[in-house]
Amino acid sequence: MTQEPRALPERLETDAESVERDLFRLVLTIVELVRQLMERQALRRVDQGDLTDEQVEGLGLGLMHLEDAMAELRGRYGFTVADLNIDLGPLGTLLAE
C-alpha cells in the first residue's frame, strides 16, 4: 500500500512565528541526525575495543547530556522525535526509529 504524495498547500504559512517554528524544527532535525550518527559511531568504536574505559565513560555521558538537551529543546517548542523525522518519500524517513 503506497501513500499518495501530499500536495503542497496553495498558500504557505509565512507569518514570522510559523517561519521561526519551521526553521527551529529543521535545525533540531539536523542536530538529531548528527546526534544519531555520533551515537552509532561511538557504539562502533566501543564494539571495536579501541577506546579506554575513561573514553567510553566520557562518550556515554556526552551522549546522555546531548539527548537531555535535545529533549528540552523539543519540549520548548512542543516537538516530538516523530515531528523531526522527515519523510523522504520512497527512501523512507530521515531518522532511525
Automatic annotation (TrEMBL):
Family, according to the entry, reads as follows: Belongs to the gas vesicle GvpK family.
Q: Name one Pfam family in it.
A: GvpK
Q: What is this protein identified as?
A: Gas vesicle protein GvpK
Q: Where in the cell is it found?
A: Gas vesicle
Family annotation (InterPro entries): GvpK
- What PANTHER family does the database record attribute to this sequence? PROTEIN GVPK 1
Provide the alphabetized UniProt keywords.
Gas vesicle
Q: What is the source species?
A: Isoptericola cucumis
Q: Which domain of life is it from?
A: Bacteria
